[in-house]
Design goal:
InterPro entries: LipOase, LipOase_C, LipOase_C_sf, PLAT/LH2_dom, PLAT/LH2_dom_sf
CATH topology of the domain at 2-112: Lipoxygenase-1
Pfam families: Lipoxygenase, PLAT
Radius of gyration: 28 Å
Keywords: Lipid metabolism, Metal-binding, Oxidoreductase
Helix content: 25-40%
Largest sheet: 5 strands, antiparallel
Organism: Myxococcus stipitatus (strain DSM 14675 / JCM 12634 / Mx s8)
Protein name: Lipoxygenase
CATH architecture of the domain at 2-112: Sandwich
CATH superfamily of the domain at 2-112: PLAT/LH2 domain
Number of strands: 16
Length: about 675
């Protein structure tokens, strides 16, 4: 019996998404396959970017549609970025979400989009289509050999033989590709940077970099103690502040040292007992090799980022203030600096702490604990879950561009001769930055990325202990919204733990993840048997790639661009005694003009949003919508309603804040790690 199928086809709106190639389609159904049909409307330019074209295919009734098999006949710039297809036949309707490329000269099989587990597949033809898609994906997404990622999470193997799949590449971004932003920033600065005839003074001449760029707001207050403490709770790395009951080992500090710095009549021991002393500790830098290189003329260049630590005090006005700083852990060789010391000593000590924080932030809090721990989940998902699997649908939007930016970072920033070698203290021939990342990985588990557990471990979950902690107060409601959202989606498909245990595709996902991506010791369970465990893991992943990455990434320009606030290298060894430094000595300690230029450019690039960014709370809805079931739409709407409530709360708080904290506004948090 003949049937008429109407296909409405949406081509992505990005520049270059359309094609002039001949496109044909085969309808794959439970009763068989149709003949190929060329999709060509008379007197019409088919498949233009942003278009919705409608075609009618007359063929034998193929039953319930399982897939659409598109063939791209090829030509010049013939690749075609297909968003989705809707097919109707009488009262029947099917939807095929895709959001990927149909490459020139290639065939792409687009699976019908109803979310379902393998056990719910209604025909052998559908099962075959799912398996075929995964077989193809495993060829496109091979794991990097274990020896190549030793000491780090598993990653995609990229080579000339196995290039990054086009589906993972940036789609014509102008501001989202960090290489482009770096180049534009360098050009803009150098165009407006005056020729300096006098000796370079980084503390003064740094303002010359901003002739064509916005000046970071903290530039006018960076020396202030309150500003220094503020960055511990709402800066680029608000993950270290820890309540401490006693002084760190090796930190020799007496009541005389802090005279006048505590509430009158309060001893140091009493302040500790009253839970008003907090610690920033960057001891992880101990034994990490720092940049050290001798050039062809025999001149040696060295850089430092010490294993520093800083005590902060919560004063009677409930404001944090830095109380004491030690630029190392040895009491005999590392004196403890306080605000009672000379202005030059105290300012230098704070700058060294920021340098220590910056090196730790870049390689551990940022690169490792967001970018690189996310990649194994991307890999396991693409290799083991077909398009209709509900977990694929839940995760896919949050993984867009992650493989691209990770590979770009490995090549452009972290590799030998990369940008980090030019200006970061732990860069250089000894690859200290990579050793730092590996050291951080040995200490890390996925549960460390759960904000409530992390805050509790650091003793700062309770607002009565640390009242002004914007990162905490913004992150927790977002975690809770994700937890409800992920749990509701999973429970819709997994009614019991047995449903998960019997899901062969998810069990393959788990096996691939734990054998090639992350050791099972890094995960909260050894076997994937309980729906609650899966919900916990996926909530952590989605929180990490969206909220957590936003927190440790998008303030980089504000935090690092005014380089004296947070230099990523110091050019002199930390002072070993007090009272020796002069105010002008700091100029020789902080980065050179060239190093500053790189730090500003990288900070601006990594703080940039893509022109096709998808945010957690989009103004007009998510462009890439994978679920079509009404029940899932209700769950998504409930999630985004919680985000709207949180956005209102953030705006209300920031209206009265001396320094607003806006980086965790839900409408400005990208869904995934795109830069």
């Amino acid at each position: 019996m003949m049937a008429a199928y109407t296909l409405t086809i949406r081509t992505n709106g990005k520049l270059g998404a359309g094609t002039d190639a001949n496109i044909s389609v085969v309808l794959v159904g439970t009763h068989g396959d149709s003949e190929p049909h060329v999709l060509d409307l008379p007197f019409h330019n088919d498949f233009e970017a942003g278009s919705e074209d409608e075609y009618t295919v007359f063929c034998e009734d193929v039953g319930d549609l399982v897939a659409l098999r598109f063939f791209n006949a090829g030509g010049v710039t013939a690749d075609w970025l297909l968003d989705w297809v809707r097919v109707t036949e009488g009262e029947k309707q099917w939807r095929f979400p895709f959001f990927r490329w149909v490459l020139s000269g290639a065939t792409a099989e687009v699976l019908e989009g109803t979310a379902k587990l393998a056990r719910d597949v209604g025909s052998e033809r559908e099962s075959v289509a799912r398996r075929a898609q995964l077989d193809a994906r495993k060829q496109m997404y091979p794991w990097r050999p274990a020896e190549a990622t030793e000491g780090l999470p598993g990653a995609l193997d990229i080579s000339e033989a196995h290039p990054l799949p086009k589906d993972e590449l940036y789609r014509g971004l102008t501001q989202g590709s960090y290489e482009v932003v770096i180049a534009k920033t360098l050009a803009a600065i150098q165009l407006h940077l005056p020729m300096l005839t006098q000796t370079w003074n980084g503390l003064v001449n740094v303002f010359d970099f901003f002739k064509s760029l916005e000046v970071p707001q903290l530039a006018g207050r960076w020396k202030d103690d309150l500003e220094f403490a503020r960055q511990a709770v709402q800066g680029i790395n608000p993950l270290h502040i820890t309540l401490v009951p006693k002084l760190p080992q090796g930190m020799s500090l007496t009541d005389d040292d802090v005279r006048g710095l505590l509430t009158p009549g309060t001893s140091l021991a009493q302040a500790l007992d009253a839970r008003r002393i907090f610690l920033l500790d960057f001891e992880i830098l101990d034994d990490i090799p720092m940049y050290r290189k001798v050039d062809e003329e025999g001149l040696e260049e060295r850089r430092w980022a010490p294993a520093s630590r800083c005590l902060l005090y919560l004063d009677d006005q409930r404001h944090l203030r830095p109380l004491a700083i030690q630029l190392g852990g040895d009491a005999t060789s590392h004196p403890v600096f306080t605000p009672n010391d000379s202005e030059a000593d105290w300012l230098a000590a704070k700058v060294y702490v920021r340098c220590s924080e910056g090196n730790t932030h870049q390689m551990v809090s940022h690169a490792l604990r967001t970018h690189f721990v996310a990649e194994p989940f991307v890999m396991a998902t693409m290799r083991n879950l077909p398009d209709p699997h509900p977990v694929y649908k839940l995760l896919r939007r949050h993984f867009r561009y992650t493989l691209a930016i990770n590979e770009g970072a490995r090549k452009g920033l972290l590799s030998a001769g990369g940008v980090f070698d030019d200006f970061i203290a732990t860069g250089g021939p000894d690859k200290g930055h990579l050793q730092l990342g590996k050291k951080g990985y040995t200490r890390w588990t996925l549960e460390d990325n759960k904000p409530r557990l992390d805050l509790q471990r650091r003793g700062v979950l309770d607002a009565s202990i640390l009242p002004d902690y914007p990162y905490r107060d913004d992150a927790l409601p977002l975690w809770d919204a994700f937890e409800e959202y992920v749990g509701a989606v999973l429970r819709h498909f997994y009614r019991t733990d047995a449903d998960l245990e019997g899901d062969a595709e998810m069990q393959h996902w788990w096996k691939d993840l734990t054998q090639r991506g992350l050791p099972v010791e890094k995960l909260p369970c050894r076997e994937l048997r309980r729906v609650s465990d899966l919900a916990d893991i996926l909530t952590t992943v989605l929180f990490t790639v969206s909220v957590q990455h936003a927190a440790v990434n998008y303030l980089q320009y504000e935090h690092y661009a005014f380089v004296p606030n947070a230099p990523l290298c110091m050019r002199q060894e930390p002072p070993r005694e007090k009272g020796v430094l002069r105010s002008e000595d700091l100029t020789a300690m902080i980065p050179t003009k060239t190093q500053m230029l790189w730090q500003i450019a990288i900070g601006r690039a990594l703080s940039s949003f893509g022109d096709d960014e998808e945010y957690l709370l989009p103004q007009d809805g998510w462009h890439e919508e994978y679920f079509q079931e009404p029940e899932l739409t209700v769950i998504r709407e409930r999630f985004q309603e919680r985000l709207r409530t949180q956005l209102a709360a953030v705006k209300a708080r920031n209206a009265n804040a001396a320094v607003p904290y806006t980086v965790l506004c839900p409408d400005k948090i990208p869904c995934g790690i795109t830069v």
